[in-house]
Amino acid sequence: MSLLRRYVKEATNSSFLLQSISGRSISTVNTNPIAPPPHPPRRRTTTEFDNLIYEAGNSGDFEAVRRLLNTRVVNACFNTTATFKFLTNTASYASSLEDLRRVLPQTDVGYTRRHAYETLIARLCKLGRIVDALVLINDMAVGRFGLSSCTFHPILNALTKKSKIEEAWRVVEVMRSHAVPMDVTAYNYFLTSHCYDGDVAEASEVLRKMEGEGMEGDTRTYDALVLGACKSGKVEAAMAILRRMEEEGLPVLYATHAHVIGEMVECGYYAQGVEFVLAYAGKDQRLDEESMGSLASKLVKRKRFKEAKLVLKEMSVRGLRMGTALREFYEKQCD
């Protein structure tokens, strides 16, 4: 027993324990702790990639631009509207565009390359460089880089917004020459342009073409139709289109309600405007805030204080957010 007690007592000494296990002197044991593995490098954000590309493009380092376009997609930091922000309508525009045309075909095959082209085309459209955007379209077609209807959307959007309808239809012919079909979004650009101008006849022609290709309208199609009805002063028709959207289970944009509210106020249908927003109240808090706030602001501006108070009291009861000006009006007039 004395031998056992001695062994247990000595075992509490760390030197004895290590010697017993390793068979070596404690002096030969490495007591340095194992260093923790290094932290993985922090991944860059989308904004950081945009900033790096901006700096590279500004300095003329387009090889760096190419590498960053590849790397950002690998890191799931996809291109944004700011990716080619360094490209502006300045003296360096032409040379920068040529450099981009040189390096984009050298980006990674597939999504990376196609999306880089589409992002650049969108940037060119924002700069009003439609002809150059079509040059890139041709580059994509020659290189077989995946042209689709989405590639043409920024061009059609830019042209139809400026009511350059004939030019836009010529772009459609370019699409067809490359076997790229029109889609609902493309038709919606034409439809919205005609409806904004109140040109019901041309809008009807666009709808006829859509139906001829077997396409059904989406939320934006109906939004354009509501806009067209309002621009034509046909509020009843706009309401009928809204009801049809509900019957077909299509989500309604906040802007679609705004079209109706704006036209009702413009026509002097103040009480009907109040009834309209209350009829939809309680289904979508954000919609309630947008619709009621918009109507109240328009009523105050027209000095229709009675109706404005009704709307603001309803907003208060429902706990809806008000803008600063409306809140001040409510506190002075309704408390």
From TrEMBL:
GO molecular function, one term: mRNA binding
PROSITE patterns linked: PPR
Alphabetic keyword roster: Repeat
Superkingdom assignment: Eukaryota
Residues covered by the Pentatricopeptide repeat-containing protein-mitochondrial domain: 112-208
PPR repeats mapped onto the chain: 148-182, 183-217, 218-252
Xref: Gene3D superfamilies: Tetratricopeptide repeat domain (1.25.40.10)
Single GO biological process annotation from the record: RNA processing
Cellular component terms per the entry's GO annotation: mitochondrion
Any one Pfam family match given in the protein's UniProt record, by short name: PPR_1
Family listed: Belongs to the PPR family. P subfamily.
NCBIfam families: PPR
Record protein name field: Pentatricopeptide repeat-containing protein-mitochondrial domain-containing protein
Native source species: Brassica oleracea var. oleracea
